[in-house]
Amino acid sequence: MTDTGLPDTDEAAFIAAARSGDAARFALVTEPHRRELQVHCYRMLANVEDARDLTQETFLRAWHKRASFEGRATVRTWLYRIATNACLDFLAKRTDRTPVPSGVPDPEVEVPYLQPYPDRMLPEDPQDAVVARETIELAFVVAVQHLPPRQRAVFVLRDVLGWPASTAAEALGVTVASVTNALQRARVTVRAQLPARRLDWRTPATHELSSDERGVLAAYIDAHERHDLDGLAALMRADLRFAMLPDPGTVSRTAREAVDGWVSAGLFGPGYDDWRCTATTLNRMPAAALYRRAPDDPEYRLFTLAVLHVVDGEIAELTGFDAADKPWLGLPATR
């Protein structure tokens, strides 16, 4: 994404609002950028709650720095610059925002702070590169977390948003040469983290679920509601990767290991044998919202989310998330 040919807040209206000293008027002209800035912060931080906080921090900083807007770049670029640096400041203060060892025999890490991003919170323009499926899927967001913060910022600004090196350098207060070097290193790291089938994040974007994805999701929901462990296992690749977040040490590397772990944890046993599921999408991926009815409870309550990555009609990756007490998901708490 670049400024060329893209809609932006009317500059004259922005300048007038900034000079007026009217905070409400300023908020009105900057608010249209909230969704895309929040996605940007999410890619930097992999956490919806952090992204929401940092987006609000961006608007607060923009208000306090409004006199610094000189019109040499668009308002959108100016806001992205503020948001990027707000995220870098946040990461500099947090020691718990880096991947950690997963505990599986082969070297692998988990991102325990990873949260799924509801599609309903994405910008509404389906053509916008901000919401390209290839750069919002969980695997891509996790791969970006392996980058040091400044490399992360360079990679997102250059390869996701499509900024020129000079613009990214100005935003980060570094040289063009530094940006170029950081981007080269970042690309190597990201490519090492992504499966070969998902290396090209710069091809024309896709957005919609495929018929395979819709079919597998429907079959997953049906098997789960019928307590059909064999049916669930049949939907998965033998080398399925499973993780349940934010619980540590839950990574499984095979479908058999994942199913055995679910059984040992009590799935479909007493208290975990009454389910209703709803199809949804998160990170532009097929997902099931799993509602559990506990004994003596008249209602099914939102319990977990299962996000599926489907390859050739099979589930290659299954990521579970705790869904309780997260109203930002936009899902009913009961059904």
From TrEMBL:
Is Transcription there in the keyword field?
A: yes
Q: Where is the RNA polymerase sigma factor 70 region 4 type domain?
A: 140-188
Query: Is Transcription regulation among the key words of this record?
Result: yes
Report the residue ranges that make up the RNA polymerase sigma-70 region domain in this protein. 31-95
User: Which of UniProt's keywords are assigned here?
Assistant: Sigma factor, Transcription, Transcription regulation
Q: Which residues does UniProt call coiled coil?
A: none
Q: Which family does it belong to?
A: Belongs to the sigma-70 factor family. ECF subfamily.
Quaternary structure, from the entry? Interacts transiently with the RNA polymerase catalytic core formed by RpoA, RpoB, RpoC and RpoZ (2 alpha, 1 beta, 1 beta' and 1 omega subunit) to form the RNA polymerase holoenzyme that can initiate transcription.
**This chain belongs to which protein, by name?**
RNA polymerase subunit sigma-70
